[in-house]
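so ive been stuck on this for like two days lol. basically i have the seq below and the ligand is flavin-adenine dinucleotide, smiles is in there too. i just want the complex predicted, nothing fancy, no docking runs or whatever. if the output looks off dont worry ill sanity check it later, just need somthing to start from for the group meeting slides
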Amino acid sequence: MNREAIVAGAGIGGLAAAIGLLRTGWTVTVLERAPKLEEAGAGWSFAPNALRAADALGVGEEFRACSVPTEAGATMRLPGGEYLMRFQPGTDAPLLANHRADLQRVLARHVPADRLHTGAEVTGVQETGDGVTVTYVDGGDTRTTTADLLVGADGIHSAVRRQVWPDTPEPIFQRILCWRGVTEPGSVWPVNGFQTWGRGARFGAHPLTGERVFWFLTVRQEEPGRRYDDDLAEVRRRTRGWHDPIPALLAATPSEQVLRHDIYDLDPLPAYAAGRTALLGDAAHAMTPFLAQGACQALEDATVLAAELSVAPVAEALAAYDRTRRHRTQQVQRMARTDPKLTLSTSPFTYRIMTAMTRRASSGVARRKSARLWDWTPPVVEVR
Ligand SMILES: Cc1cc2nc3c(=O)[nH]c(=O)nc-3n(C[C@H](O)[C@H](O)[C@H](O)COP(=O)(O)OP(=O)(O)OC[C@H]3O[C@@H](n4cnc5c(N)ncnc54)[C@H](O)[C@@H]3O)c2cc1C
C-alpha cells in the first residue's frame, strides 16, 4: 500500500515526522518555506526523553555524535558565582547540547533530497473526500498537491493551523526577551554547562561540538518588539559583574551573530488533528523555552505519529495521536508558562524566596521535577 504524506515545515519537528513516516513505508514530501535549510541559529539542549525519541526514529547515534553533554540542567549559580545547586556525576543525568544547524543537517540527510522542497510556502489546505489538497507558493508560482495526510509542522505561526483551525487564538507574548550567541571555536574551553540566576534575568551556557559554547540570556520585557542598537553590548550591560566565564563567553562571541527573540507561546489547542491533518511541534503547542522541552516534545510527537500511522488507517491513527499527545504536551506547555512567572520575577522578595528554596532543596527537587518531564517511553516505530 503506497500512502503519501505532505509535511509542511522542515524544522526539527517536520524533519523528524518525515523520518518517522519514511521509516514506516510512507512516501513523504516536505515543503519548506525558507529558500534553503538555514546554517544560522544557535544551540539548544535535549533531555533523555528526546534521545529516546531519536533512538526510536533510528537517528539516535547521529544525534549523539553531533551533541555534547552539558551539566546546565543541574548546575545553578548566583551572579556572584555561588552555587545554588551543582551537577552530581553519577546521580544527575546530563542533557545533550548541539547547534541547531548541525542537528538539522543530520536529520535532513535521512530525507531524500528530491522529497525536500525548499522555497515552498504552504498557503492553503482543502480536505477532499479521500485526500487533502495543499496549495503552496514556489518561486512565485502557485501549485497544488494532494496526499493522504498532511502534517502541519510549520512552527508557532503555522499556516496549516490557521487554515484548519481558523478560530484558534494568536500566539501570546510572555513578557520575555531572549538573546543567544555562540562563541568562536576554541576561544573559551572547556565549559561544563551552567545556569546563573539573577533577579529577572537568567543566563545559561552549554558546550557544543567544535569547542564552541552556546549561551543565552532571558530577561523580563513588558512589550514585544523592543530593539537595541547593539545586542551584545546590552547583554554585557545586563550581566556586568557576573561570575566567570560569562564575560569571557561574551567577549568570544561575534556580535553580528547574536540572536534576539521575543518569547511567545500558544494557549492549549482543543485538538491536534482534524480530517487528514495533524499538527506537530510548535504548530501544536509552542511553549516558552524555560523547560527546554519544545524541540524535545516535537521529537516525541513525530515518534507517536509515525507509530500510530503504521498500524491504523489515517482517521483512527490521528485520533490516537491526538489523544496521546495533547495531554502530555499541554501539561509541559503549562509548566513552561508558569515557571518564568517565578524564576524570572523581578520582585526582590520572590527572588530571595526562590533562590533560598532552591539552595535548600538543592538538586533533589530539580531532579524530581525533571523526572516528570523526562520519564517517557517511546512507542516502537517499526521499519516497513
Ligand atoms: C530562545 C529559545 C530557546 C529554546 N531552547 C530549547 C531547548 O534548549 N530545547 C528544546 O527542546 N527546545 C528549545 N526551544 C524550543 C524549540 O526551538 C522549538 O520548540 C522547536 O524549534 C520547534 O520545532 P518545529 O519544527 O515545531 O518548529 P520550527 O523550528 O519553527 O520549524 C518550522 C519550520 O516551518 C517552516 N515554515 C513556516 N511556515 C511555513 C509555511 N507556511 N510553509 C512551509 N514551511 C513553513 C519554517 O521556515 C521552519 O523551517 C527554544 C526556543 C526558543 C525560542
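The chain has a mean pLDDT of 95. The domain at 4-70+96-171+266-341 is CATH 3.50.50.60 (FAD/NAD(P)-binding domain).
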